[in-house]
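Q: I have 308 residues here and want to know how they pack in 3D. Can you give me a structure?
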Amino acid sequence: MTTGEESTVFEAVAPLEADGERLDRMLARAIPELSRSRIQALMAEGRVTPSARKAVAGRRYRVSVPPARPAEPAAEAIPLAVVHEDAHLVVVDKPAGMVAHPAPGHDGGTLVNALLDHCGPELTGVGGVARPGIVHRLDKDTSGLIVAAKTETAHAGLRRLFETHDIDRGYLALAQGLPSPARGRIEAPIGRDPRHRKRMAVVERGRAAVTRYRVEKAYGTRASLVACRLETGRTHQVRVHMAHIGHALIGDPLYGGRRRGLPAFSRQALHAARLGFRHPATGENMLFESPPPADFHELAVMLEDLNL
């Protein structure tokens, strides 16, 4: 590795056994300082030379990492579906496709960028420079309710509620197959999948995770509408737990795949439909509900037609 004023350069020679392997996979193994997703982003930016999809044994590859930019997201005039707002916090119905906060590959167009424009300069720095206001996250392609803090007091109070799991969080999911029994409690620890950096998995030494589920509607035995309530809040929890019991979400690119006989769907069919908590400043019990968006509803209609 060499470091210059403008960039940090890593070099790696593809070993014999890596010949024909995906280049990003080989480089992630050879350069532990960089994640595979980071390497993929650098490849897309033309910062890996020579450019290739597959590794060639004996060839030397050069990865140029640009200097870190200040983590200060800019305000962007992005429309928001605001469900509730007061002096302390704002509850938003996030659309599928919106990332919660800036990250590599997603410098703009995020919920944080939109909140900075909507809330004004007072939001800057609340809870940290890079993720002002953010208390919890929804996956990019999960739609639904998310709360953000507008003051440090509200941020600290909401963080405590999430840490103690004193939050009412309910999801609606369209799942493959029909869970049996029709209601149950999934208690299975979740951690990083040791074989896949981007995935979470049920692992022996993972963090405790509990999901309660109830089948709301069956589309024969092919699919079902399932309501899930979280007792904990782990990354990808509903998606991992539903896949763990053999009923992955329709359209889920990480945990579901494509099942024959079901309509194609461009994202995981998951919607954060319910969010309840005790207001960190006023003590008032707050409860918000959101109906699924149009694409979710249209998928449900297609499943209904399949079951006729």
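Q: Anything worth noting?
A: The chain has a mean pLDDT of 91. The longest helix spans residues 294-306.
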